[in-house]
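Work Package 3 (structural annotation) set out to generate three-dimensional models for the target panel prioritized at the project kickoff. During this period the team completed the workflow that converts sequence records into discrete structure tokens, so that structures can be stored uniformly alongside our sequence database. As a representative example, we reproduce one entry of 909 residues exactly as it appears in the project archive.
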Amino acid sequence: MARRFGRFRNAPVRSLTEKHPWSLAGQVFALQVALVVFLVAAAVLALLLQSRHDTNTEARQRSIAVAETFAHSPGVLAALKSPDPSKVLQPLTEAARKAAGVDFIVVMDTKGIRYTHPDPSQIGKRFVGTIGPSLAGHVYTETVKGPLGREVQATVPIYDLGHKVVGLVSAGMKVKNVTSVVSRQIPIILGTGAAALAVATAGTALVARRLRRQTHRLGPAEMTRMYEHHDAVLHAVREGVLIVGNDGRLLLANDEARRLLDLPHDAEGRHISDLPGLDPGTVELLTSGRAATDEVLLAGDRLLAVNQRPTDRHGGPEGTVATLRDSTELRKLSGRAEIARQRLRLLYDAGLGIGTTLDVVSTAEELAKVAVPRLADFVTVDLSDPVLHGDEPTSTGTDMRRTAIQGIRDDHPLYERGRLIDFLPSTPQAQAFGSGRSELVPDLSAAPGWLAQEPERTQRIIEYGIHSLITVPLQARGVILGMVNFWRSEKPQPFEEDDLSLAEELVARAAVSIDNARRYTREHAMAVTLQRSLLPRALPEQSALEVAHRYLPALSGVSGDWFDVIPLPGSRVALVVGDVVGHGLHAAATMGRLRTAVHNFSTLDLPPDEILNHLDDLVGRIDQEEVETTVGAVITGATCLYAIYDPVSRHCAMARAGHPLPALVQPEGSVSFPDLPAGPPLGLGGMPFETAELELAEGAQLVLYTDGLIEDRTRDIDVGMELLRQALASHPDRPPEESCQAVLEELLPSRPKDDVALLIARTRAIPPDHVADWDVLFDPAAVAGMRAAAAEKLDDWGLSELAFAMELVLSELITNAIRHGSAPVTIRLLRDRTLTCEVADSSSTSPHLRYAAALDEGGRGLFLVAQLSERWGTRYTPQGKVIWAELALPRPDGSVGGTAFLNILDAEL
């Protein structure tokens, strides 16, 4: 019926377009323009006539008003009676004419002889016009041809006191001036008409443009052809189309819609709810009038994707149009594709999320997290106990430790984390471990082998709702590291073969990461063991400093951080903190070599800058050896800070090689970072190091550390130093041990990325009454006096037991200084943990211990000193050298240790 109606409707359209080549819009436009032109012309004519009539009327009325006004003006009657009326009236009429806007005012006598005129040559001549009616007392208007041309004039009488006409006044305007007013109005009228025509034309053009836009610039023929094609497509397309009116009646249904909804042949025109066989959801959607996008509806055994939109969006009639698409097969395919996509996404996320750290436990936890809940509701990872320590796993599954567990809830009855599990041979876990193949248990309640593991617990697991299990061996490089168990409880369907293959792929990817973490754990443990063996196991006893220390190896790899506390002669103490560039065994071994070298260089009792110079040469030689012997060797570098504290003078000499500044905590709690000269890192060579000397108050704390304490990827080094300042400040009475712990808690994360060495030393001072100084005359005879003075000082200190040995040592050292050295010579006795004797002179010549022959007269003095003292040696100063010897103090029981009271008479002197 629609096609028949379309053909019938299009027939007259074709005839019109054949007779009139113009489009319908063009014809309407031409008719509208003609009508506008006609209306404008008629309006102009009517306005012209009306304007002319109104203008003549206005001119006559103005002439009468001016003439009557002048005739009754004061002084006019007296002027007429004057000997020369023209002389009086001519100026008055001209002034009145200009003020009134008329072309002339003429005053005349009763015979028509002019007294006034705009043209003075016309004065005295006869007035052109009719004066009879005015002499009779009437106002008379007429149009005449006067001296000024065609004129419209009005004549009125002038009365004397006796009401007798004694003169006439005529006022008027030239006809051309009257018509000029009309002429000035005609352009306005024509302009208005032209504007109206332009507006009408623009409106017509706008309507025509909108019509062309709505029809996409199609003419009648194209519109007819488009309608026929649209009608053909509507009924041939394989997508159902329904048009429903605002009242819920079906207005149109194409062939595909009839087939999909199984509509009767008389469906059009009937209400949607009256159509048989429609699902209630379909009826509700089609009658609701709401918009819908790919909404799935059930129609018999079909799934229809419905899109619905209102038809009145662009001014059309109210209603809706709906399209129907059969998506039954597409849904099945898309469902399988969605499952495949989700599995690929799971594997992709596993590749990114598993193995982010080289930690066995963390990797196992990452595996469990990525599989819940997309694959299983609960995941447990059981690793062989040796794997957790970096060792090879055992060949049996009897030592499995639950390493990770992840689930949708926390109240599950599964084995807890950390539990050591011994799986029975009948369990799926033990069977999978023995065979190396995965096990799928669809129904746990019907698996007697699994139920036998621990009947009470397995029964609770079944009652909890866990009903299906997949257990997959965690196998890498041919070795089974443990088992991964996937449990299902929320989904009623058991695991299937597709789930098993996905679980195996997931575990296979995680197994390599766990094995890498296991191997790294073993190497890391070896490196940590090596490094800890190279670090000081206990701090030496000394009285100058109260020292606390911390060393934390990085979880991601051991580096070469180290620290040391080295006692020096004269109760002095050296503090050392260093950091070797790199990580691993190489860095730890290099650190051990440098620490040994620092100890060796310290025995020479050199200042800090010279110590660093020697270390710089050593690191350079190490680099050279490695470059020559190893292809692609990494250049070794290191930073170091070396400090020497003297408790007698409370001076601290420090030098640094590329190391962070130390922190100094004053006794009142303020914190500063002394500005030490910045030397280059060790191994670069070519740049000297400088020593800075500070005077420290008793009770001050010196904080040495490596860069791992203050540097981090998430913060700048300045931020780290400020955090260190805050952690140390305002705690003057806190012991160094507590300060170490507070600093680590404040600055370090739970998993540091770099090694950290921290050394905090609180200064002490040796009391002045424990130190004795003398200047010695440069004369061998002064030795006896010095021996007596020293013995007296020892008596004051209560060390009389050491007087004999000290006198011998002092005698030999003073004698050597006077005989082989240079003036001045000084002596210092220092009472601390030992009794130290120091003899200084300005010579740089160092004595050497040697064995004297039987007949030699000398050479036995230093041998005697070495036998009587615990230690002895030489150190150099800017003023010369100091030879020192230490004697052990008496024990609490009164005995004297060391070698002071050996039978020296039995020695070979």
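The first helix runs from residue 2 to 19.
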